[in-house]
Amino acid sequence: MIEDNSLGLEFKYLIVNDMDRKFGLWVNTVGYQSIPPDSPYPLKEHPSGYFFNAEKGRVLREYQLVYITKGRGLFSSDSTSEKQVCKGRLMVLFPGQWHTYRPLRQTGWREYYIGFEGPMIDAIVDDAFLSQEQQILEIGLNEELVSLFSRALAVAEADKISAQQYLSGIVLHMIGMILSVSKNKVFEMSDVDQKIEQAKIIMNENVSGNVDPEELAMRLNISYSWFRRVFKEYTGYAPAKYFQELKLRKAKQMLVGTSQSVKEISFFLGFQSTEYFFSFFKKRTGLTPLEYRSFGREE
């Protein structure tokens, strides 16, 4: 079964010190939330500086990238009249600018966001790489961009030394990708490209559960035999094998980046037992989970 994660919510607000500011770019917040249809928005779990009334809007002190991967809604700002935002579109928010956005009640939406500031990004905006005249960018469903948001969340959660510099690099990677994709109109993918990207995103978002490839194909309104063949042509992996690779990658990240036990990681990733996870990991990497953790932290 595919777990919808309809109530998914994950976010992190970071502490920034003087040394972080000297780097020229720092991240204040990163998060993900899935808003089901007929749900209140925004959710009230956020601090007062970020929570807002969608009818009244708000003004931030930072830049934000807000990427929608499911559902649709509305966006408007001082410089942008009300426009529809649907999956595959990204909103760019600017400091000091009034704006508001919200999902449609009948659809809800899934959003990834990251907030940042600093002279480095100011220079990028001053040179018009990002503009208030073009705040909604067509990206299409892009699994690599979703992975960058997920990586930023993991780095923020681990909060290791120089995490801010790592996060700044991720932000620059995101901006470079967004500019390249939108300006080269790579978003004008074929239906096939979009189906495969959508499948990869669903797998990424359900890495802690189970995804049945046949059910996934049905969800995407395509035949399983066609889906399996084309997915392997695009990724080099059959869908089930690709999902295993995602679980393995997440396990590696958690072993090195968190203090969670092997049992906890095994449970989080949906393995049927710790013993099965141990066997799976050793077979794929040549190391036990604890050996990998020790090796990764030594580096």
UniProtKB/TrEMBL annotation:
Keywords, ordered alphabetically:
DNA-binding, Transcription, Transcription regulation
Q: Where is the HTH araC/xylS-type domain?
A: 197-295
Report if keyword Magnesium is assigned.
no
Which first-to-last residue range defines the signal peptide?
none
Q: Which InterPro entries match?
A: AraC-bd, Homeodomain-like_sf, HTH-like, HTH_AraC, Tscrpt_reg_AraC-type_HTH
Residue ranges spanning the membrane: these are: none
Matches recorded under PROSITE patterns: HTH_ARAC_FAMILY_2
Asked whether the keyword Cytoplasm is assigned, the reply is no
What's one GO MF term for it?
A: DNA-binding transcription factor activity
Q: Pfam family example for this protein?
A: AraC_binding
Which named protein is this? Transcriptional regulator, AraC family
Species of origin reads Bacteroides ovatus (strain ATCC 8483 / DSM 1896 / JCM 5824 / BCRC 10623 / CCUG 4943 / NCTC 11153)
